[in-house]
Automatic annotation (TrEMBL), chain A:
It comes from Scleropages formosus (Asian bonytongue). Residues 28-295 form the Pyruvate carboxyltransferase domain. Belongs to the HMG-CoA lyase family. This is hydroxymethylglutaryl-CoA lyase. It is an enzyme of class 4 (lyase). Pathway: Metabolic intermediate metabolism; (S)-3-hydroxy-3-methylglutaryl-CoA degradation; acetoacetate from (S)-3-hydroxy-3-methylglutaryl-CoA: step 1/1. GO terms for molecular function: hydroxymethylglutaryl-CoA lyase activity; metal ion binding. Its EC number is 4.1.3.4.
TrEMBL record, chain B:
Pathway: Metabolic intermediate metabolism; (S)-3-hydroxy-3-methylglutaryl-CoA degradation; acetoacetate from (S)-3-hydroxy-3-methylglutaryl-CoA: step 1/1. It catalyses: (3S)-3-hydroxy-3-methylglutaryl-CoA = acetoacetate + acetyl-CoA. Transmembrane segments: none annotated. It comes from Scleropages formosus (Asian bonytongue). Its EC number is 4.1.3.4. GO terms for molecular function: hydroxymethylglutaryl-CoA lyase activity; metal ion binding. This is hydroxymethylglutaryl-CoA lyase. NCBIfam families: PRK05692.1. Belongs to the HMG-CoA lyase family.
Amino acid sequence: VVPLSLSRLRPASQAVAVSSVNPLPKQVKIVEVGPRDGLQNEKLTVPTEVKLQFIDMLSETGLPVIEATSFVSPKWIPQMADQAEVTQGIRKRPGVVYPVLAPNLKGFQAAVKAGADEVAIFSTVSELFAMKNANCSVEESLQRAEEVTRAAKAAGVRVRGYVSCVLGCPYEGHVSPDKVAQMAKHIYAMGCYEISLGDTIGVGTPGSMRAMLDAVSKEVPVDRLAVHCHDTYGQALANILVALQMGVSVVDSSVAGLGGCPYAPGASGNVATEDLVYMLHGLGIHTGVDLQKVMDAGAFICRFLNRRTSSKVAQASCRL
Amino acid sequence: MGNVPAALKHCLSYEQLTRDYPWLAAWLQREKRNAITDLPKFVKIVEVGPRDGLQNEKEIVPTDVKIQFIDLLSKTGLPAIEATSFVSSKWVPQMADHTDVLQGIHRAPQVKYPVLTPNLRGFRTAIAAGATEVAVFGSASETFSRKNINCSIEESMQRFEEVVRAAKELQIPVRGYVSCVLGCPYEGDIEPSKVTKVVKTLYGMGCYEISLGDTIGVGTPGSMARLLDSVKKEVPMSTLAVHCHDTYGQALANILVALQMGVSVVDSSVAGLGGCPYAKGASGNVSTEDVLYMLHGLGVETGVDLSKVMEAGDFICKALNRKTNSKVAQAKCRL
């Protein structure tokens, strides 16, 4: 029997509770995916110089990680055809990491040749999604990932792992938290230093987020986990909040909420970095990010893309 | 820590405590996880689209369209639908047809149709028109009170007292609203104690429920938690509702925290009707559809049919010639 008073203990090393039982991380690392996940899903293809200017602006904001591009075949993703030029052209700010996607060994080799020092691999628990998205089975996609991680280890390059469809699949519907946990465990064991759990179609709610993280955190230490929430159903910030309450301290987001959802025409996709930063700062959580500068970068890219920002903070601040 | 009694060591260092009692960390972790989704089993949704929503839309909606809109909402299972406002049409022309609306709607049994009554005169007109529940609007910010209803907080409380007294005589329940609870467009940050004072006054007067409004949507889960921590010391959690604006995209996260702290009444507006008059181009009310999606995903009962709410949202957006603000509606291509 535990004395009731003990349950009111607040760990001295953690700050900022939103309730007495759920202290939040003091610090959150934001992984900016706008230049990759964002632009990849925009209708307009952005010229290389604009991409470079965009990434350079983001480099000034304090964002610690900026996903620059994707070494995927331009046949599949024409928006990322200038992958090598982008990787070589960005002015890398010291202290900032610029991972690039490397879906297979060929992509990895091209990435390293272009000067990439960190890569990311993609996995999914859904067979149908793997087939439709990467034109192979889950098994094959894992083999490709294995090749990349092995080569990366040899080259001293860090690898981040993504798991997509963690809270639901556009083809298969419900996704079992245990399957997600097993996949996360698998790619963690392969050598990924961080696993980003993606609610690819944004169907998750705080309930399903909690259940999924419960399962995954039993297999992978929670400080190695990130959440990548889509705001397609408006649930992203609530889902992120629950993830923070469960100890996650790395969050992916996209400036201006770039990147619609290819599975629901007209719907939104990535959660907006501005809205995330607003919430985190309001919670007293340190991010190192300058919200104003992020809004500047958002305004810049939206002007170019000739679209309105998807960020509510930017809209409210009249940065349409 | 040397020669310090174990009990003191444990008070000073959580790490020491969990080292000495490893089972405790696991127990606390479990408690933590439960608290995240230890939510009310049922949440009452108060639909404010026809009043707060339409009041803040640029287009004025004809009376018959309003009536049709409310009748659609009456079929969704929503337990409370704020129908209109008995405020002077000089100030709020969108609500000029208040009597016709109230008399024209088909009231579903089990559904409440509260109306705003800012003063005794409005109250009397509302009663004459058949109102069976009313609401009064106070503010936690002096400046907002003066700019919005042209009087001080003190004076507004006196007006409400008259309304509540008259309502009590007729056994009409009164709901209280407090605006600017997490920030004011003129005064900036608002001290939770100021909000608590107003809430306590309204509750003491006889309001059966107090809706805490983040009028400009600046609140975050942090400020929401701090506010509720203060208010719950003076009034029972069961009397509180949250009325979150989504101007900065924080509404659902703020609502979630409120639920985690025991609030079980949430105001929302179908299709997220009602922009923010203080931030041009910005959104206002949180969308009922998005709230329902979250609550149902959490296993919380509401009694509301999401698809019927989307139909009502569809209808009113067509009438207003505007896109829905609800992300759920957008995702399901009900633009």
